[in-house]
Give the backbone structure.
Amino acid sequence: MTREGHSSQLSDALMRAPDSAWIRRDVALLGWGESSRIDPGAGADRFDRATRRLRSTSAPLALASFTFDENDSGSILVVPEVLLRIDGDGARFLLGTEDDLPAPRPSTGLPQGTIGEGGLEMWTSLVEEALEAIESREVDKVVLSRRLSARFAAEVPVHLVLANLASSEPGSHTFLVDGFVGSSPELLVSLAKGRVRSISLAGSADLGDPAGSHSFDTAKMAREHTLAADSVDDALAPFCTRLQRSGSSVATYGDIQHLSTTFEGDTHPGTELSDLLSALHPTAAVAGTPTKTALELIRELEGHERGRYAGPVGWLDRSGDGEFAIALRCGVIEGDEATLYTGAGIVEGSDPRLEFEETRLKLRPMLGALGLS
């Protein structure tokens, strides 16, 4: 199938308002309804528990979204009643049939909305406290997050937000699970018949200002990215008979650039996706280094639960394979309200105001998809 044909099929399916989705450049999984809903609970073994509970059903796979903090409840697996896969070979139903699909929804557009911005003063205080911890050598890096609320004049049609993200962020992983929608550039891990792949991103810059204050040629940017990439390397290596790490390069997603390192390899026999998720999450790209101390600092400083922001989001199947991104550039949509999340990695040399601007930069995909400026 041509790329144009793939895009046309995807666009048509998105107008039927799927309830769950996983979309990347060459493949899409779209689900309608719920035949079962699995709560894997909290704790360090929740990824393994999720796989075991999926296997207790007859479903071929589930779309899933896990909380950032293993101590928090709210992780979920959804098995749709109707599940459509669209790829280079065309469209086929993994669950249900074409007769089970709802009719296309007329496009009424997005309702008018407003977002509460501000937050610079609070953010500056958070960053300064993090820098004190870094200066005292408690941590080398800590990733801080911001949470913003938006209100709309009417209920937000989530499928239009999903369609906007799929169109504007074609190189990213666009997802929808239980009202949690976004488009993440960062592949946490994929596993397919023993082949593993992961992409580590850290360090961000505006494509329109590549030589500005966020230049990648700084010690701060290099340090932030190296810590993130090393955490992925250390987590994957014990599970692999071979693991290849690329050099760092600049990758562009929409109008945002990142330093990127790709990992590819072969896993030891018997390795499952749940093993890799447990070892990888949270990487230094979303928590910090060392992980345990960074997590303690995040819980102490942020003052809000991240929920599923910065947690693994994607799909897994009964064989133990699957694909997960880190849930970034995202938000939770409930009726006429949306809660958006963004964050930035703090290391020695970080400037609170510049890091605040980075968080604003990372909000662009969701703001655009919601029709907000």
The first helix runs from residue 3 to 14. The mean pLDDT is 92. Residues 179 and 333 are 5 Å apart (CA to CA).
